[in-house]
Write a structure and sequence with these properties.
The protein is mainly α. It is 72% helix and 2% strand. The strands form 2 sheets. A two-stranded antiparallel sheet has the order 1-2. α6 (120-138) packs parallel to α8 and α12 runs antiparallel to α13 (316-340). It is globular and about 110 Å long.
């Protein structure tokens, strides 16, 4: 175990918090899975959901370990090659009209041979952040025209977000917001950025207007999220959403300060998506306000470590990677919690590293692996600098010793005492002479 921990590179605090969140996730996921286990399509076996979650987390940490060993500059080329692949995956996902587990599958595809559902939009998020970071690092301290950036930067961004938007508004909105934040930090010209923001808002308004004017003309997920936005703004809710929010509120109110205890939740049996989208409500019901605030505190510590790592990064690309991949994890966590307490409309965003679900866990771990990769590089640079200082000090001590011995021999010669000459290498002679000259 010691050897394994020693082999983990990068920011140890990030490693510790990520591991702690993953460990914490097992009890609420196991408790909340009863909804699925005893549902219409369930087998009544909650242990199978716990084992499945364990496998997802195990694979996730395997992804972190592998990714944090790859030199992060490789991701510049990978992001360019991955963009067309992501576009094809998203296009296929949008057009294939299958269902998974009885649910609409416009956000999912089935991985061949293994039969596992996968959400390409989560991978698209990571790839797009890598691509934007590469572009911003490339144009740093250079003059850039709006036309050139429009084709090289914003065309891939709008194509990918446009393919995600019909099926998953919340992910598309978060992605666009995080990219705007990243290009702002990346010192992209404000006059160009304002044009992009206005274009994005105008496109969204036209899209929503078209969806309302021609209901049924778009995929059914469009009608769903447009309805959610309308209901949230107007203060009204449809029956299904009102039921979810009501059960989440009951769970939070029941939890009180200390909660009802692990595995004793009642609302898990009634709250849909209790192990994923609304798991925060179950955590508060079972562990109370203390558990809910502690979880927020862990995410804030993780955010604080991301900020420190971004500031300490030796190159601009490293700073952009940490910002573009680390900050959205915290942002998504806050959105999930805000939905549970009805500060935001239902989004379908999971609680990172806590909720069940392979796609969410794996892509979060992929992002964390890249962040740790950057922090690992900074540690390696610091270690090299320490070793260099140590070598210089050791050489200085050796040269000082040679000077002292030479001075002692000179003193003995002046006293008429015969001194046996010590054989020294030409390099040592040069080093001693150089240090003598320096001291004189």
């Amino acid at each position: 175990m010691k050897a394994l921990i020693k082999n983990l590179k990068g920011d140890k605090t990030i490693w510790a918090i990520v591991a702690l969140l993953a460990i914490v996730s097992f009890l609420p996921v196991y408790s909340a899975s009863s909804n699925l286990a005893y549902g219409a399509s369930g087998s009544g076996n909650t242990l199978s959901f716990l084992i499945k979650h364990l496998a997802h987390v195990g694979i996730g940490f395997g992804i972190i370990y592998v990714i944090h060993k790859i030199p992060y500059n490789y991701f510049k080329a990978i992001s360019i090659l991955a963009i067309p692949v992501i576009v094809l995956l998203l296009l296929y996902t949008l057009l294939q009209g299958k269902t998974i587990g009885g649910a609409n599958a416009s956000r999912w595809i089935q991985i061949p041979f293994v039969g596992i559902g996968f959400q390409p939009s989560t991978l698209a998020f990571v790839v797009l952040m890598l691509y934007v970071s590469r572009y911003l690092a490339k144009i740093k301290d250079k003059e850039v025209t709006f036309k050139s950036s429009l084709w090289e930067l914003w065309l891939p961004v709008f194509v990918i977000i446009g393919l995600i938007l019909p099926a998953n508004f919340s992910t598309a909105a978060i992605m666009f917001s995080m990219i705007i934040m990243l290009v702002f930090i990346g010192m992209y010209p404000i006059k160009y950025l304002s044009k992009i923001v206005l274009t994005g808002i105008l496109f969204l308004a036209l899209f929503i207007g078209a969806a309302k004017a021609f209901p049924g003309a778009f995929p059914n997920r469009v009608d769903t999220w447009v309805s959610r936005l309308d209901n949230f703004v107007s203060g009204s809710e449809n029956e299904e959403e009102a039921y979810q929010i009501e059960k989440a509120k009951i769970a939070i109110a029941t939890g009180g300060l200390h909660g009802v205890g692990p595995g004793k939740s009642v609302q898990r049996n009634f709250l849909p998506q209790s192990s994923s989208d609304f798991i925060y409500a179950i955590i508060i019901e079972e562990y109370g306000l203390v558990g809910g605030v502690t979880l927020i505190f862990l995410y804030l510590i993780l955010f604080f470590r991301f900020v420190i790592a971004a500031i300490k990064a030796r190159n601009f690309y490293g700073t952009l990677l940490i910002t573009g991949l680390g900050f959205p994890i915290i942002f998504q966590a806050m959105i999930n919690m805000a939905v549970a307490v009805e500060l935001l409309p239902t989004t379908g965003q999971t609680l990172p590293l806590i909720s069940s679900g392979g796609s969410s866990i794996w892509m979060t771990c992929l992002a964390i692996g890249i962040v740790l990769n950057v922090t690992k590089k900074e540690e390696e640079i610091k270690e090299e600098e320490r070793e260099k200082i140590q070598r210089e000090k050791a050489l200085e001590r050796l040269i000082q010793k040679e000077i002292e011995e030479e001075q002692e021999r000179e003193r003995l010669r002046e006293a008429g005492i015969e001194v046996e000459e010590k054989d020294i290498t030409d390099e040592e002679k040069i080093a001693v002479k150089a240090l003598k000259d320096l001291n004189s």
